[in-house]
């Protein structure tokens, strides 16, 4: 005889954990409220308490119903979800956020900080409180460990170690892959020998004095001519109506000059002719 096909609802129903305080019919009713691809890993009967805002100084009982620790495969997260079997609906939920701190101050009480204030589960059975606490802490631990491993893998993949630079070969030695400075440069104060010497005239100049080019000379003016100095009377050239030109003085000093000009003694004796030659 052919076995009937197993549906997703049947497989989910077999994987769900029932409450020991609920009947089979009540557990099946509860599993039907979980939704598609949702699984309860722990179920218990509880009273839900929340602190009263804004002071959050006192407890207020909100609901009594079936509490499920739900793995939501569609949302890829875990939730505390409370269901009311009388109204056949979900009445409250709280997602397990990162670094959720769950405590158990009493054997029947679990407390943590929720989105609306401090949350307390008052369990009807201590064994269900213990099972719920163990499931919650183990799930949080495993999820945090997987998150840390994923972060470590991503950081290793994104930040590879820096590549080692290629060795620099020494041209003088083919077998030496390192460069060694045999004479290390000195970075002390520079000496005078390290700079070219300036000429004495240029060195004497101040920084604001610069050699200038010779400007073109202008025309000579009479104001530029000074009085004669070191004047020496060499000879005298005179003229009279009776004797004509008269040349007297130190003629010997003029002889070398006159000889270069082509003037001889016979020319000098004829004084008029001498003056003509000088012209």
UniProtKB/TrEMBL annotation:
Pfam families in the cross-refs: PBD (PF00786), WH1 (PF00568)
Q: Tell me where in this chain the WH1 domain is found.
A: 34-143
Q: Where is this region: Disordered?
A: 135-174
Cited Gene3D superfamilies: CRIB domain, Pleckstrin-homology domain (PH domain)/Phosphotyrosine-binding domain (PTB)
Query: PROSITE patterns, alphabetically?
Result: CRIB, WH1
**Keywords in alphabetical order:** Cytoplasm, Cytoskeleton, Phosphoprotein
| Chief location | cytoplasm
CDD domains, per database record? CRIB (cd00132), EVH1_WASP-like (cd01205)
Subcellular localization(s) per the UniProt record: Cytoplasm, Cytoskeleton
Cellular compartments per GO CC: cytoskeleton
The segment(s) forming the CRIB domain are: 225-238
Q: InterPro entries recorded for this chain?
A: CRIB_dom, CRIB_dom_sf, PH-like_dom_sf, WAS_C, WASPfam_EVH1, WH1/EVH1_dom
Gene Ontology biological process:
actin filament organization
Q: Where is the composition biased (Basic and acidic residues)?
A: 146-161
For this entry, the protein name equals Wiskott-aldrich syndrome protein
Give the source lineage, highest ranks first.
Answer: Eukaryota, Metazoa, Ecdysozoa, Arthropoda, Hexapoda
């Amino acid at each position: 005889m052919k076995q009937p096909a197993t549906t997703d609802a049947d497989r989910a129903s077999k994987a769900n954990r029932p409450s020991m305080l609920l009947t089979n019919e009540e557990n099946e009713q509860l599993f039907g409220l979980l939704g598609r691809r949702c699984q309860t890993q722990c179920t218990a009967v509880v009273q839900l308490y929340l602190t009263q805002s804004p002071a959050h100084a006192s407890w207020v009982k909100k609901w009594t119903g079936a509490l499920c620790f739900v793995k939501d495969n569609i949302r890829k997260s875990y939730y505390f979800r409370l269901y009311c079997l009388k109204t056949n609906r979900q009445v409250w939920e709280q997602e397990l956020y990162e670094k959720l701190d769950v405590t158990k101050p009493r054997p029947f009480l679990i407390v943590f900080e929720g989105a609306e204030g401090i949350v307390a589960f008052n369990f009807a059975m201590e064994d269900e409180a213990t099972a719920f606490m163990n499931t919650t802490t183990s799930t949080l631990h495993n999820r945090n460990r997987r998150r840390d491993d994923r972060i470590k893998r991503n950081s290793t993949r994104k930040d590879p170690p820096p590549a080692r630079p290629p060795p620099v070969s020494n041209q003088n030695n083919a077998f030496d892959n390192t460069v060694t400075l045999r004479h290390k440069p000195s970075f002390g104060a520079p000496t005078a020998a390290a700079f070219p010497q300036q000429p004495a005239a240029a060195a004497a100049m101040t920084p604001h004095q610069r050699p200038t080019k010779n400007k073109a000379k202008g025309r000579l003016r009479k104001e530029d001519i000074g009085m004669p100095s070191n004047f020496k009377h060499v000879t005298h050239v005179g003229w009279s109506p009776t004797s004509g030109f008269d040349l007297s003085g130190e003629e010997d000093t003029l002889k070398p000059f006159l000889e270069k000009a082509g003037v001889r003694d016979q020319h000098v004796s004829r004084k008029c002719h001498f003056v003509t030659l000088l012209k």
